[in-house]
Amino acid sequence: MTAGTDESVRHRVLLVGWDGVRDDTARGLQLPALGGLAAAGRWWTTTLPDVDVAPTWTAVGWSTILTGVGPDEHGVMGNDAELNRLHRYPEVLTTAYCERPTLNTYGAASALIFGTAHGPGPLFGPGVRTVDWVDRREYPGKFTETDLVIQEAAERQLREHDPDLAFVYLGEADQIAHEIGTGDEYEAAIRRQDGRLGRLIAAVRGRPRFAQENWLVMVTTDHGHRDGGGHGGGTWQERQSFVVAGLITDDPVAPPAAWADHAENVDIAPTILSHLGIPLPSRFRGGVCASHDRVLHRLHLDRGGAAVRGVPVVLADRRRAPDAPEECRIPHPCPRRTRRLRLHPGVGVRVR
Ligand SMILES: [Zn+2]
Q1: Of 90, 155, 191, 350, which residue has the fewest beta carbons closer than 10 angstroms?
Q2: Can you give the residue ranges of every domain in the chain?
Q3: How far away, in angstroms, is 174 Cα from ligand 1 center?
Q4: pLDDT for 171-187, tens place per residue?
């Protein structure tokens, strides 16, 4: 059986982005939802590259996570509008959609870089077919208010609609750290993020056809914070990150999963595509860190264009870059479908 094509079980992915959540803080909080997810999978502590390579700014972190390549390739080195190569490195939702136009892709966020041309944005490419968008500038409490709107919209989408690949961004913890550092209020904000994760997972489990679905749920963050709040530099507190992945399914015949010993943030995009049964573009620099099959494997296209399972990934080879950088391209023109864009109250900016 070709991975990802078993018609009796639909493979789906939810990626939840928590902005600016320190790994050491999150681990110390005994978070029920994140800990429960890791118990069904893995929690990898990751360290961002040296600050000369990847400054610990928000736009840099999410560009890397969503494109599957580092700043040396996507070119985003800060939050400001500078020349970059994002147009050559589409984010993973657009990559997945262009490879399989029947996919329902969904993005929900209130940070400017995802939905507007602010800085290097918008990070949501044309393949994010349904977008729930809130402009945090329109709310006095910023993320402390808009995370609630995003949460409710995402829950509704997961429960009532049919997303194959969803990305939900929550920014409150980062905002609290900037305002008052990484103390009790920061920890309380992370607990609230965990409660929201729990509600998203409950929405997944409550889906009408959940028994026929196999969900890969991943959670990550773009950077850490200094103790007193703030990031962008190269301290270990700022460079710490994490990747948590778990499989959520009631499928009684689901094969056992395989998990890599190590993971990095660039592994998230290839892992998502692998779960969906979509071949990995050779431009990816990371590897597959979680598999619903027994082995970690790469997918490639056979001569007829079908996805076939390649050789198991040898972990030692996972970091090996291709001999020559690939000219990034969408393999075939994306069919034009009407994009559903839901603007929430208080919105003054449209997604391009
Ligand atoms: Zn951030």
Answers
A1: 350
A2: 10-324
A3: 6
A4: 999 999 999 999 999 99
